[in-house]
Amino acid sequence: MSTPEHILVVEDEANIAGFITTILKTNGYDVLRADNGKQALMCITSYCPDAVILDLGLPDMDGQQVIRTVREWSPVPIIVVSARTHERDKVTALDGGADDYMTKPFSAGELLARLRTALRHARGREGGAETPQGSFRCGALTLDYAKRRVSLNGENIHLTQIEYRIIELLSRFSGRVLTYDYIIKQVWGPNAAFDNQILRVNMANIRRKIEANPAAPRYISTEVGVGYMMAEGE
Amino acid sequence: MTEPGRRAARTLRDLGLTAGMLAAAAGLCFLLGQVDHVAHSDAYVSMLFILAVFLTARFTSGYAWGIGAALVSVLLVNFFFTYPYFAFNFLLPGYPITVACMLAVSLLTSAMTTRIKQVEQLRGEAAREKMRGNLLRAVSHDFRTPLTAIMGANSTLAESSAQLTPEERARLHRNIAEDAQWLLRMVENLLTVTRIREETGGGVEKTPQLPEEVVAEAVDKFHRHYPEREVTVSVPETAELCPMDPMLVEQVLLNLMENAVIHGGAVRRIALTVSAAADEMRFCVEDDGGGVSREQLRHFFEDRAPAGTGDGRRNMGIGLSVCQAIVAAHGGRMWAEHAQGGGLAVSFALPMKGEEA
To answer: A223 touching B, CB under 8 A?
Structure first.
C-alpha cells in the first residue's frame, strides 16, 4: 500500500475511541478523531477520509442524522458502531446510507474485516464496477449476468424471474447487508407497497434451491429483522 | 388490537351480558308464571331479578351496568309481573323499598367486584416486583465473581508483568476474555428481558418469521463462542411462517445451546430440530451429554440456585428463566425430557396463530 488510508473515528467515549485508534494504527491506517457530530461533519468535509467509523450515540446530535447529512454529498463508506442492538436502529442506519452496522462489543478482527470490505467496495465503485462484470462466483455458486443464469457445481438452477432478480441484486452487493425495504424497492419497483412476507417466501424458495441445508446457509445469510446478505464473491 | 377497539369490544360484551341476564330472569319468570298459574305467588320474581342484578354487577366492569340492570329490573317487574299486569303502577305499597333494594344490591356488588379486581392487580404487581428483585439480586451476585476475576487478572498484569512467564500472561489474558464474554452474554439476556416489558407491557411484538432464518442466526452466533462444537440443524421441508419476536426466540435457542455445552457434561454434538405441528411450531435442542436424573428432570424448571446458595457463577438460573419468560410471553410452552442417546432434550413450542397472546 503506497499511502495509508485515512479513517475518521467518531466516538465520544475516550476509552473506546482509544482502543479503535490503537487497532487501526497498528494495522497501518491513518486515524482522525472526532468527539461529536459537528466535528465529524467538519472533518469529513475538510479531510475527505477514506472511511468513517461512526458511533450513533453522540453528545450533540444523533448519529443517524450524521449519516443522512453526509449522504447528501459524499459516498464515503460509513461503518456504524453502536451499543443499540434493536433491529430498528440497524434498519434506519442502513436505509439512511450506512455501509455496515456493528453492535458493541466487537472484536478487533471483526472491525478490521468489515473495514476492509467497506474500503474494497468503495474502490470498486470508483473503478466504475457498479455495473456488474460478467459473472459472480462464490464457492460452487456461479451467476452469469449476461445469460441470467445461476448454476451450482456447474448445474443449472431453475429460478423464477423474481428469484433471479433477488439473487442478482444480493450478489452485486455481496458482503453487504441489504434491508428488506431496499430489496423490495429494487426488485418489485419503487411503488411496491407490501410487507416483507412475499420477499421472505421467495427467499425461502431460493434457499431450498441453492443451499444444501436451508437452516445452515452457505451463500445467503439472514440478519434477522434487518435483511439479507450474500457471502463475498471471489 | 388497539385500545379503542378493545374498549368497544368490552362495552359490547357488557351490554350483551346485561341484556342476557335480564332476558333470562324475565323468561324464567314467565315460564314459572305459566306453570303455577293457580298459586300465583310473586315471591320468586323479585328474587330472580335481584339475582340477575347481582350477576350483572359482578361480571361487568364499572358501576353503570349494574345500576342500569337494577333500574330496568324495577321497571320490568312493575310492568310484567305485578298487578296490574302489562301496565305501570308506581303507587304500589312497598314499591320504593324494592327500588332501593335493587339499587343497593347492584351498588354493593359493583363496589365489591371493583375491589376484588384491584386486589388481584396489586397481587400481580407484587409478584412482578418480587421477580424483578430476585433477578436483580441474582444478577448482582453473578456479576461480582467474573468482575473480581477480571480486575484481579488485570492488576496482576499491570503490576507484576515482569515476573510472569509468557504462558502465565497468556492465561491471564485468556481468563479476562472468557469472563468478559460471560458478562456480555448475561447482559444480552437481561436486555432481552427489558424487550418483553418495555414495548408491549408483558407481551411481545410478533411478526411472521421463517424459523430457519432465526435458527441459522442463532447457530451462527453460537459458533462464534464455541467454534469446535458440532450443531446439526433440521427444519421443515416447506417454509412456514410463524408469528414471533425473532430476536427473543434467537436468544432462547442460544441460551439452550450454551446451557447444553456448559452443563451437559462432555457434549460433542447438539441437534436442533424445528417441526411444524397442527397449531404450533416446535423447537427442540438435544445434546449427547450426560443428561440429568429423573429427579432433576422433574424439577428442571423450578427456581434453581437462588442468589446466595453456592458460589458457582455458572448456574443456569438466569439463562433458563429468561427462556421461560420469553416462551411464556409468546403464549407458548416449554418442556424437558431425556434424549434418546442419553443426553437432555429441551423443547419449546410457539402457537402458530393468535396475535393476541
So the answer is: yes
The answer to whether the CB atoms of B219 and A222 lie below 8 A apart is: no
| CATH 3.40.50.2300 describes domain A6-126 | yes
The CATH number that applies at residue B332 is 3.30.565.10
Q: A78-82 and A51-55 as β-strands: parallel, antiparallel, unpaired?
A: parallel
* One domain for residues B213 and B111: no
Give residue-wise pLDDT tens across range A108-148: 888 998 999 889 888 877 655 545 568 888 889 999 888 88
- Of B104, B124, B144, which closes a domain? B124
Query: Would residue B308 count as lying in a domain?
Result: yes
**Residues of chain A contacting B180 with CB distance shorter than 8 Å:** 105
Predicted confidence at residue B309, as pLDDT, reads 40
Give the nearest chain B residue to A225 (CA atoms): B246
Q: B154 touching A, CB under 8 A?
A: no
> For chain A, where are the E strands, in sequence order?
6-10, 30-34, 51-55, 78-82, 100-103, 135-138, 141-144, 149-152, 155-157, 178-179, 220-223, 227-230
Please check the confidence at residue B244 and state whether its pLDDT lies above 80: yes
Within chain A, which residue ranges are assigned CATH 3.40.50.2300? Answer: 6-126
CB contacts under 8 A, A 49-88 vs B, are 85, 87
Residue B243 is part of which domain span?
Answer: 203-351
pLDDT digits (tens, 9 = 90+) for A50-85: 999 999 988 888 999 999 999 998 899 999 998 887
Query: Does residue B201 surpass a pLDDT of 70?
Result: no
| A89, A90, A224, A229, best to mutate vs chain B, most B CBs in 10 Å | A224
**Cell digits for A163?**
428469484
Query: Does B340 lie in the same domain as B207?
Result: yes
CA distance A214 to B212: 7
Q: How far apart are CA B106 and CA B70, in angstroms?
A: 6
Strands B269-276 and B280-287 turn out to be antiparallel
Contact A214 B214 (CB under 8 A): no
Among candidates B215, B239, B247 on the partner chain, residue whose Cβ is nearest the Cβ of A204? B239
- Which pLDDT belongs to residue B199? 52
pLDDT at A88: 87
Nearest CB among A200, A201, A217 relative to B216 is that of A217
Q: Is B246 on the interface with A (CB under 8 A)?
A: yes
Q: What is the pLDDT of residues B162-173, one digit of tens each?
A: 888 889 999 999
The fold of the A135-230 domain, in CATH, is: Arc Repressor Mutant, subunit A (1.10.10)
Task: Give the pairing type, strands A227-230 and A178-179.
Answer: antiparallel
- Kindly state whether residue B175 falls inside one of the protein's structural domains: no
Q: Is residue B207 part of a domain?
A: yes
Per the structure, the count of domains in chain B is 2
Q: Please tell me if residue A211 touches chain B, with a CB cutoff of 8 Å.
A: no
Using one digit for the tens of pLDDT, what is the confidence trace for B83-93? 777 777 777 77
Chain A residue nearest residue B249, CA to CA: A224
**Contact between residue A145 and residue A135 where contact means Cβ atoms under 8 Å apart:** yes
